[in-house]
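[Automated response] Your request has been received and processed.

Submitted sequence:
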Amino acid sequence: MSYDRYLAICKPLHYGTLLGSRACVHMAAAAWATGFLNALLHTANTFSLPLCKGNALDQFFCEIPQILKLSCSQSYFREAGLLVVSVLVAFGCFVFIVLSYVQILRAVLRIPSEQGRHKAFATCLPHLAVVSLFVSTVMIAYLKPPSISSPSLDLVVSVLYSVVPPLREVLCPSMEGH
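Generated structure:
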């Protein structure tokens, strides 16, 4: 999405050439393959953990940190390693998004008319709002100290970062043809 906005604002005359159906297929395939591989590794590792504290989670869905709390094995270090890999992949995506928006901001600030700047910012704001919501709730979910952890807070945060961002795409799909 940030690449789409980058091309629409910074290279509008090349938009159709650079973001054709082939490029979209490649980006979608890369995202799906990365997500599938990540899920496969986590699932295989999680199913190999013995659970000694029951199997009931007080969550909206099964999240790996919650499942690790139920494990009585020391093999959770493997899962911690997989989480580190996931964080690195997510950080790479985050850096790509930030760099795209830095380029967009530079291009928008060079637009001479206020109306043009407003239109460019209006194009980016929905995506920035969703990314900000997603990143902030994920950080709260995974980086909060255990002392402020509560099942109800965990539930609300997990709903915010798992339901709201995809819902935005359903309710406000991307503009076609910019």
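Summary generated for your ticket: The chain has eight helices and no strands. The mean pLDDT is 77.
If you did not submit this request, please reply to this message.
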